[in-house]
Write a structure and sequence with these properties.
alpha/beta; five-stranded mixed beta sheet; binds benzoic acid; binds fe (iii) ion
Amino acid sequence: MTGEQERREQELTDRVVASFENTPGNPRLKYLMETLVKHVHAFVREVRLTKHEWNAWIDFLTRAGHITDDRRQEVVLMSDILGISMQTIAVNNEAYKDATEATAFGPFFVNDAPLIENGGDISGGAPGEPSWIEGSVRDTEGRPIPIARIEVWEADDEGLYDVQHDDGRVYGRAHLFSDNDGNYSFWGLTPTPYPIPSDGPVEQLLEAVGRSTYRAAHLHFMVSAEGYRTLVTHIFVDGDPQLDRGDSVFGVKDSLIKKFTHHEADEATPNGRALPEGQTWSHVRFDIVLAPGDD
Ligand code: BEZ
Ligand code: FE
């Protein structure tokens, strides 16, 4: 590239950056816009973006916008599969002692999920293998956190959340509270891997680059207590083959992969629950550590 070409390209970048100089009363917005322009211009210049590629990008964004509605968020999905969501989570959940790692929130959380007692069942009749999930909620000094609010949600054994059905059913979700000793327990389902929505441009992009469209099997948690940073996380299933193929949204962290121990149908369940004849079940322990914080 000639020096003159380089000068022209740099002059344009500088002029666009300078256009935010007089952003009134919002230095953060000014900083975000200037930095965004610098990075995006650097990308365009580095890859020598063709007009055809620019058109493909615009077409992708347009299709993502058109398919997005109240129940379907393709733009967030785009952020997810590019690792932008997980990088934002990393930046906002700074490592603190042995506090449990955070991961993706995902699109399937619902407010006002049913309240259950410790030892209760979140499955609400959703099909799948029962799983006994138990653990403690503690601070980073090892002290129990009583009455922490624990929201849990997961897909059924076909990989579908209740909200993906059109009939208003509520299953595979609930909230409960840790007891006075900071312990909790509930019945859920052994998680199953499932694909991200497959009828939009994001899935087409994943196919085009030969990436998996599946999420590794997981169970979602959101844990909150006054004086602590709210933890949004999942647990993953040790041995799930999808862990090796790659989680489409980069949500997996080694510390969140847990052993779901398999139990035969004739083994007694932890709280004496009688399962249907021939029903196997699993068991997992997830001890949660909350970082201090004010949200
Ligand atoms: C999920 O965890 O359910 C999810 C997260 C990101 C994209 C799609 C699904
Ligand atoms: Fe999920």
